[in-house]
Prior knowledge:
α3 crosses α7 and α7 runs parallel beside α9. The N terminus is likely disordered. This protein is globular. It is built from 9 helices and no strands. 61% of the residues lie in helices and 0% in strands. The chain is an all-alpha fold and 151 residues long.
Amino acid sequence: xxxxxxxxxxxxxxxxxxGGRRVLQVKPRSxxxxxxxxxxxxxxxAFESLLQVIRISQVDLAAALGIPExxxxxxxxxxxxxxxxxxxxxxxxxxxxRAEGVFENLxxxxxxLKSPNAALKRITPLSLLDTDIGAETVMDTLGRIExxxxx
Length: 151
């Protein structure tokens, strides 16, 4: 009689969070693949995919990414984000992927990202993702949680 192995919890990948091959048109397999995608620009549909995942308003997500609403509306019309905006979308997707891996549950990860955090001076992690340093701090905090260090 064969025994079934316990599967590790599935984690959404960054590319899946951004709409996968349907939106990105390619399957990134390495960081250099991401560089090429970012430089080309990520389709505006990736923003909609993130909206569905994190369940916040378009206004709040635009603010979290540091993309003005008028710019967002223009990008949606044009269909493509520029490289700087694309990098912000990928950064958010990578943080969500990491948080889901740490909490082993997407809903718990999203709740954590939206909640004030003592280790971050009572700031919500999501509100820090508009800058590289803020995102690094959030990733560091997730690492400390994963390793059982006060966070």
